[in-house]
Amino acid sequence: MRAAVHTAANEPLRIEEIEVERPAEGEVAIDVTSCGACHSDLHVLKGELPFPTPAVLGHEVAGVIGELGSSVSGLEVGDRVVTSFIMPCGRCSQCAAGNEEICLEFFAYNRAKGQLYDGKTRLSRDGEPVWMYSMGGLAQRAVTPATSVYRVPDGVELADVAALGCSTMTAYGALRHAADVRVGDTVAVIAAGGVGSALIQLARVFGAAEIIAVDVAADKLEAARVLGATSTVNSAETDPASAVRELTDGRGVDVAFEALGSSRTFEVARDSVVEGGQVIVVGIAPPGDTGELNLGTIARRKLQVKGSYGAKPRRDMPVLLDLVARGLLRPQDAISRHYPLEEAAEAFAALDRGEIRGRAVIDVA
C-alpha cells in the first residue's frame, strides 16, 4: 500500500510502498479515506517528540472497515468509522478504573515505541519494521485495536469527522472531565489552532457565557468568532492576560485552556483566571519546556492547575458522534484545507508556517 513515511527529523514525508499485516485478535483494519494533520505529528516530524523511524504518522482517521481480526464484535466489514488516537487496551488498571486516557498499555507500547499491544508493528518495508504513531493513519490502510473504532452515523461525511478522534476528543476531555465547564462559566482559549478551535466549538455547546479566543494571528481569531468565540484578543498587539481581564470587568475567566504547548501560552492562561479559577494545560509541549508557577500565588489565589490528555474514548466518542449527527457540533467548520496523500508533506509544512486555520485534512482515498 502507499503511505507517507517519516524517515528522519526535519525531513519531509516520503510517499512509499510499504507492507501491512492483517489485523490480529481484537484488531480492525481500516481502509483510510481521510486523516487529520495534527500538531503532535508535526512535533515528531521536527524531532521535538522522540519517535523511532521509519514511521507512519497520522492518528485522526476516518475510513471504512476492510477486515476484522478474530474476537471482534459489534463491528462489520464495510462499516464507516472514525478512530480515537488513544487506543485503550481495556485490560489495565487504569482502563478498569475508567481512566482510558492514560491507559498503561497505550503509553508502554505505542506512545514512544510505535507498537501495538503484542509489542509489534503491523507495518514493514523490505522486511524491516515501520513504526506506527497511534494507528499510522497516513496510509491507505491502518490497523488498530477495536477499542478505538466507532461507527459514523448515517448522513455524516467521513472527511468531516476525521479530526474528531484527536483534536475534538482532546477538547471534550478538557472541558468535561478536567474543567467540568458548566452553563454560564467564562472561558479563555489560548491558541486558536486545531484543538483551540474544537475547544471554542464545544464551549459553546456546553453553554459557556463568554468564550474568549487568544491568538497571534488575525485570520485565526476571525475564524474563532465564526466557531463561537464571543470575544477575541490578538496577543501580538496587546498584553493578552490584561485584555482578558478587561473583557471580564477585571475579574478574569473561570477557566483558561492552554491549547498550544509553550511556556508563553501557559503564562497567559495562568494570568487570565479569576481567584479560584482553573488553568487547564491541553497542548503538548516539546520535552524540556517548562512553565513558571509562584507557589505563594497559587495558595493565595487558590488556583487550580490541571493537565488534560484526550478523553475517555469508549464513553466520549459516542457522545461526540451524536452531537455531530444532531447538528449541534460541526467539526467540518474548523477544516480550512484539504490535501491529497501525495501532498502530505506540504500539509505539515503549512501547519508549521502557521497557515492552517483550525484543521487540515489529508484525503487518502
UniProtKB/TrEMBL annotation:
Keywords associated with the record: Metal-binding, Oxidoreductase, Zinc
Domain of life of the native organism: Bacteria
Family annotation (InterPro entries): ADH-like_C, ADH-like_N, ADH_Zn_CS, ER, GroES-like_sf, NAD(P)-bd_dom_sf
Membrane-spanning parts: none
All residue ranges annotated as the Enoyl reductase (ER) domain in the record: 8-362
SUPFAM superfamilies: GroES-like, NAD(P)-binding Rossmann-fold domains
Cofactor(s) this protein cannot do without: Zn(2+)
A GO molecular function held by the record: zinc ion binding
Family according to the record: Belongs to the zinc-containing alcohol dehydrogenase family.
Protein known as: Zn-dependent alcohol dehydrogenase
Lineage of source species: Bacteria, Bacillati, Actinomycetota, Actinomycetes, Actinopolysporales
